[in-house]
Design goal:
Layout lengths: L7 E5 L3 H13 L3 E5 L2 H10 L4 E4 L8 H11 L5 E5 L4 H9 L4 E4 L4 H19 L7 E4 L2 E4 L4 E4 L2 E4 L2 H12 L4 E3 H9 L7 H15 L9 E4 L3 E4 L10
Parallel strand pairs: 1-2, 1-3, 3-4, 4-5
Antiparallel strand pairs: 6-7, 7-8, 8-9, 10-12, 11-12
Helix pairs in contact: 2-3, 6-7, 6-8
The structure holds calcium ion.
């Protein structure tokens, strides 16, 4: 199981070969990776925020990973931190977790295990952050959308959304009532290596309208804000059951 949305990962690692290896694998999994080799520079970058995960070496120039972690936790208690260090004793792992880390992987590490741990941390974050995660049902008048399965029921018929349709709708539902830019949808749903153009997003919106709207030409729910993006015109909380 992978996360549905591309994550922004801050990779703090001063060993170029290891950094490249990690970056290639995380990008392959659809994530955006920013790498910083120096502990102080990394802290300045992390304090600005905007990351979904920090992958953190311990032995770093200017500021080691444990100190980085303690200082970041003073201003950011939530962003998951995965330690990745040649210091692999139980005492080191305890120190990393006590400094505020969420997980600790010793070098040399197995790439499949690194990717699985990254995915697990991101899933946990998504569950914690998303107001609709695992919350059953969104109702748009007579349309019932199951936010776990992607099934849309209307007039006694069930339509199953495709992966991308579902991810777009879920993202808009998380930000219901707000205008979401097309570029942001591209970034979050297609990922950093996005081939599709903003035109592709438009086409998916049209497809979603055909499923959700009584009159797709005059949408009640899925609005276009010309030059800005899209908005799902729902303010109510999804319900836990039908
Ligand atoms: Ca190092």
């Amino acid at each position: 199981m992978t996360t549905a949305l591309a994550a922004r990962v801050l990779l703090v690692e001063d060993e170029p070969d290891i950094a490249r290896l990690i970056r290639v694998n995380l990008v392959h999994d659809g994530h955006l990776v920013e790498q910083v080799a120096d502990g102080m520079d990394a802290l300045a970058r992390a304090e600005v925020g905007g990351f979904d995960l920090v992958v953190l070496d311990v032995m770093l120039p200017r500021l080691d990973g444990f100190a980085f972690c303690e200082r970041l936790r003073a201003v950011d208690p939530d962003t998951p931190i995965l330690f990745l260090s040649a210091l692999g004793s139980a005492a080191d792992r305890v120190r990393g977790l006590q400094a505020g880390g969420d997980d600790y992987l010793a070098k040399p590490f197995d790439l499949a295990e690194l990717r699985a741990r990254v995915a697990a941390l991101l899933r946990r974050r998504e569950r914690a952050a998303s107001p609709i995660y695992g919350r059953g049902v969104l109702r748009l008048d007579d349309v019932r959308i199951d936010l776990k399965s992607g099934e849309v029921a209307r007039d006694g018929a069930v339509h199953r959304l495709t992966g991308k349709e579902f991810e777009i709708l879920r993202y808009l539902a998380e930000r219901r009532g707000q205008v979401v830019k097309r570029g942001e949808l591209l970034d979050r749903v297609w990922g950093p290596a996005a081939e599709p153009t903003e035109r592709t997003v438009d086409n998916f919106i049209l497809r979603l309208r055909r499923v959700l709207e009584r009159d797709p030409a005059r949408p009640k729910w899925l609005h276009t804000h010309r030059g800005l993006g899209y908005r799902l015109a729902v303010t109510a909380e999804p319900r836990s059951d039908a």
